[in-house]
Amino acid sequence: MCSCLLQKYESFLPIGPNTPLITLGEGNTPLVRSQRLEKEIGCGELYFKLESCNPTGSFKDRGMVLAVAKAVEARSQTIICASTGNTSASAAAYGARCGLTTLVLVPRGKVAQGKFAQAMIYGAKVIAIDGNFDQALSLVKSLAKKHPVTLVNSLNPNRLHGQKTAAFEIVDALGEAPDYLLIPVGNAGNITAYWLGFTEYYKAGRAKKTPKMMGFEAEGAAPIVLGHPVAEPKTVASAIRIGNPASWQSAIAARDESGGTIDCVSDSEILRAYRLLATAEGLFGEPASAASVAGLIKLANQGVKMTGKRIVCVITGAGLKDPETAMMERDGLWELPPDLAAIEEALEWN
Ligand code: F0G
After folding, report:
1. Which of 189, 218, 262, 309 gives a 20 to 30 Å CA spacing to 20?
2. Ligand 1 atom 15: the closest Cα is on which residue?
3. Sheet holding 31-33, edge to edge
4. Helix residue ranges per DSSP H, the chain
5. Is 2's pLDDT higher than 70?
6. pTM of the model as a whole
7. Whose Cα sits closest to atom 11 in ligand 1?
8. Dihedral over Cα of 122, 127, 128, 134: its sign
9. Contact assessment for residue 275 and residue 143, using Cβ atoms and an 8 Å cutoff
10. Residue 313: strand, helix, or coil
């Protein structure tokens, strides 16, 4: 089977004879069935879509491969984006692959270490601003209007078209759309893209139904839930620390057209789900990814009936991107002398 995402779903994508079919091996990510949470929640089937298995460790690669292919087709030399980290890592990788200059604006000191390392090693020019993501996005929009550069944030429709392929893969794997799709919401591009994918597959007769779209913002960065922008968004889930999402209106449309909801989860709910995903399922997603699982637990606690339902939680990014947050967990660590008796004593194996 071809490992090129653009080729696989070519008929659904804005690809022409001059679009280069570039690839770093994105897409075709695992859909892994839950071992424990499914039983605890009491739903029919629960799956995790492991977008963390993409080449740069997040779902951004699906959209970036198309955005960069179209930039190359248009003979653009430079791509630019604002990012909480993952978009910059992905843009830097595909930019490097295609010999483009990649320029990224990030909130200074607010990007998880792994993502920052990725942008640096792929050779991006990183501008760290004393401001938040929303300010960075506003600046790159102005720069892209004034200068001959291609904006590769999800305002670029090619990003959304690429990202919708994850919905196609879920339907292809299950043979039908799930009942619920749970997804973290930051700049709201991904929920928009999944809804686009599910509705396109439905219209093409590849699915008989569409799922309810259940989006989850972080409580301290929940503009859509509150109904107004948040000037100083705060959350441990730095990827979704966004106060004025670019795809706000289309996220609301996805929610309403699908009969779903957009709610929020607190940092403690996110961190609990983050640990549970790792310890109960063996899956290490980054904190923002755990918002979908935290949302599932919240729905179950609210008494939402999920008996017999098929649910997919999107694990949007890899846990290793954010080692600082993972290292807060020290319960399993014992520091001991290199001494057999001391180890046996600590283990109570005497
Ligand atoms: N999960 C992760 C791991 C992310 O990196 C993001 C967004 C989201 C969820 C939310 O997706 O923005 O489409 O609603 N990260 C962007 C970035 C903002 O710059 O990397 P969204």
Report:
1. 189
2. 239
3. 31-33, 45-50, 310-315, 180-184, 212-218, 261-265
4. 5-8, 37-41, 60-73, 86-97, 113-121, 133-146, 157-163, 165-174, 189-203, 223-226, 248-258, 267-281, 290-301, 323-326, 340-347
5. no
6. 0.97
7. 186
8. negative
9. no
10. strand
Distance of CA 199 to CAs 12, 150, 196, 246, Å? 12, 28, 5, 21
| Chain centre distance of CA 183 | 8
Question: Does 270 have pLDDT greater than 90?
Answer: yes
Atom of ligand 1 at shortest distance to CA of 153?
19
Please report the atom of ligand 1 found closest to the CA of residue 215: 14
pLDDT at 331 over 90: no
**Paired tokens of 220:** 């301290």
Confidence of residue 3 (pLDDT cuts 50, 70, 90): low
Smallest CA separation from ligand 1 atom 7, residue: 239
Residue closest by Cα to atom 10 of ligand 1: 186
Q: For ligand 1, is residue 4 a contact (CB within 6 Å)?
A: no
What's the whole-number mean pLDDT along residues 83-109? 98
